[in-house]
Amino acid sequence: MTGTTQNEAFDAVDIIRVKRDRGTLTPAQIDWTIDAYTRGVIADEQMAALNMAILLNGMDRAEIARWTAAMIASGERMDFSSLRRPDGGVKATTDKHSTGGVGDKITLPLAPLVAVFGVAVPQLSGRGLGHTGGTLDKLEAIPGWRAALSNDEMMAQLQDVGAVICAAGAGLAPADKKLYALRDVTGTVEAIPLIASSIMSKKIAEGTGSLVLDVKVGSGAFMKDLAQARELAQTMVALGKDAGVNTVALLTNMDTPLGLTAGNAIEVEESVEVLSGGGPRDVVELTVRLAQEMLVCAGVHDADPAAALKDGRAMDVWNRMIEAQGGDPRATLPVAKESETIYATTSGVVAELDALSVGVAAWRLGAGRARKEDVVQAGAGVRLHAKPGDRISAGDPLMTLLTDTPERFARATEVLSGAVVIDQAGSVAAQPLILDRIA
Ligand code: URA
Fold first, then answer.
1. 215-239, pLDDT tens digit by residue?
2. Is the CB of residue 221 below 6 angstroms from any atom belonging to ligand 1?
3. The whole model's pTM is what?
4. 3-class DSSP state for residue 94?
5. Is the C-beta atom of 208 inside 6 A of ligand 1?
6. Sign, CA torsion 294/172/168/356
7. How far apart (Å, rounded) are the C-alpha atoms in residues 131 and 363?
8. Cβ neighbours, 10 Å, residue 17
9. pLDDT level of residue 4 (50, 70, 90 thresholds)
10. Is 183 in the active site?
């Protein structure tokens, strides 16, 4: 009979019925569900039905906490307590996680910036799927750079350099890997209990001492409105604190892309500008603010991250971090073979520049992947020439599309129709970047 396997503690169909009928799962039922799915006892179609019931009917805080703990228990836990400060004490660790956005290259300047102040940053990152870019795809645009490190290599780099950005090993929360791939193809990604447990299981298993969450809100984010984003942030902060990880969340605007680039090599280039003391204002503002939050969470209260971007200390750590992973930080980055520029047809002030449209365009140009096995183009993406609040004249360039495969221009241009709104009266109020803080 479907869902019933001899010698199993529960029946998958009974578990699905509990959530379908708005009931509450017991801790034992949750532990069994995650374990049985990881072992292949619960079939994908049963887990998909359960995920949909959770998306529609929710979970209470105790269920989410147990679901997260079960996912952590499905794999290994890392331990950074052997990292030492120069005085022999235990080195504090801190990490940042973004829920994903367009042009979100913040991890690149942020990890070395925080390491300047003696706090270790173990940044386990992912690849892009869909319209949001992946940190590893961006860094792989640097010739020679390698994402896969052993646990020993990671520890050595954290001790010597202080920052590491690498791929999460297969042993970390394996239940989440299987569950996330299933959610991705069954329309069940956007469930707050499932997003919160997915993110926090990986971060808690990673073993960081503190964590700052950047919860994106707006057209280019999973969470389209502030109330949903606040609920997700509150859920994740509570999960982190309950697990002994000092956790804070910022809610930040993702109606428009961050910075002036969305792609891989072009986002590395912009990150290097920030590390050189320049770069777009919004990228610098968010990098500095997240660095301050991470440092305070890790117990460092007197740091001046803005100064460390200006005086080259963060750049020094960046160079060492890239070299330690086989990359050449001074190498020329790949450039797309073809480009096409879109021009303004009216004059005025840019009122809107839609993040989702730019993200999908960059993806269609080859910067992202539709399936996990797709190869990304390092040079592809969208370079923006104007942002909301900028005054432009008819005929000015708005954005340049970049790809190695020019047959992609038509589909990218199609999604950008209507993405830019120009206010001819010229009165546009600036949108705040940081919308709220949850602690
Ligand atoms: N990122 C994750 O790691 N998991 C989710 O469910 C959503 C975003």
1. 999 999 989 999 999 999 999 999 9
2. no
3. 0.94
4. strand
5. no
6. negative
7. 6
8. 14
9. low
10. yes
What are 99-135's pLDDT values in tens digits? 989 999 999 999 999 999 999 999 998 877 667 778 9
Atom 2 of ligand 1: nearest residue by CA position: 199
Name the residue with the closest Cα to ligand 1, atom 6. 195
Amino acid (1-letter code) at residue 125: S
Helix axes 61-73, 27-39, angle to 10 degrees: 40
How far, in Å, CA of 208 to CA of 122, rounded?
Answer: 7
Element (H, E) at 415: helix 409-416
Q: Could you write out the DSSP letters of every residue in 39-81?
A: HT-S-HHHHHHHHHHHHHH---HHHHHHHHHHHHHTS-----T
Range ranked top by mean pLDDT from 29-38, 167-176, 419-428: 29-38
CA torsion sign, 91 to 248 to 105 to 316? negative
Helices 27-39, 174-184: axis angle to 10 degrees equals 80
Give the chain's domains with CATH numbers: 12-58 (no CATH), 94-324 (3.40.1030.10), 338-423 (3.90.1170.30)
Instruction: Spell out a b/e string for 115-141, using b for 16 or more CB atoms within 10 Å of the CB, else e.
Output: bbbebbbbbbbbbbbebbbbbbbbbbb
Q: 66-96: string of b/e by CB count within 10 Å (b at 16+)?
A: bbbbbbbbbbeebebeebeeeeeeebbbbbb
How far is the C-alpha of 134 from the C-alpha of 181, rounded, in Å?
Answer: 16
Contact 86, 264 (CB under 8 A): no
The single residue listed with the structure tokens 């970047």 is 433
**Residue matched to tokens 């069994």:** 32
Q: What type of residue sits at position 124? A: L
Most ligand 1 atoms within 8 A of CB, residue of 198, 202, 203, 204 to mutate: 198
Contact (Cβ atoms closer than 8 angstroms) between residue 388 and residue 256: yes
* Residue 294 DSSP SS3: helix
